Amino acid sequence: MRRRLYFVLPNIKSAHAIMNELLLDRIDEGHIHFHAEKEQLLGDLPKANAVEKSDVIYSAMAGFLFGAVFGLFGGILAYLVPWWFGEVSLTVIPYCMVLGAIACAAWAAAVATAAPSYRIKLHKKQMEDGNILMIVSVPLGRLQVVRQRLLKTHPEATYSGVWPAEHILFP
Question: Which residue in 40, 61, 77, 79 has a CA-CA distance of 20 to 30 Å to 154?
Fold first, then answer.
């Protein structure tokens, strides 16, 4: 299980330095992404993908749930009004639920790619000022170590949180 660490960096030089340090710390390049207001300034740094820049996952899950519910209602309606399709068995209900869930999940995910993530919205003002948002996905067991090392060696980096949220089981 991985967690995403969010850091706001002041400039591209700092972003390159932290990228090199994370690579030396054996964090794969595929788990380090950067996002800026003007992405052409990032150069050869890995850019954030659509999943990190939008709420695709949440939207797809919500669409899946709503689609299943509407599919249930549609299946019940198709069963209760048999003159639409002729003789209909009860198996039409799960088929409608599956079809509705898949269709709504795909539609909701496609729509969500156009809207920015709430995590990105939190940093919009900072990115407009020329800062760079770094998103690092690290294993749960190394979360504290990586965060403390980055904060210690790069005081210019502003820690901005972790996703999914840290869970403290015992006070």
Answer: 40
Domain with CATH 3.40.462.40 in the chain: 2-52+116-163
Q: What is the pLDDT of residue 94?
A: 93
Average pLDDT over residues 130-157: 85
Q: Which two tokens stand for residue 146?
A: 């990586």
For the chain, the average pLDDT equals 84
Residue 69 CA to residue 88 CA, distance in Å, equals 20
User: What CA–CA distance (Å, rounded) separates 112 from 7?
Assistant: 24
Domain at 2-52+116-163, CATH class: alpha beta
Q: Order of strands, edge to edge, in the sheet holding 158-163?
A: 32-35, 132-139, 2-9, 158-163
CB-CB neighbours of 154 under 10 Å:
16
> What does pTM read for this prediction?
0.72
3-state secondary structure of 166: coil
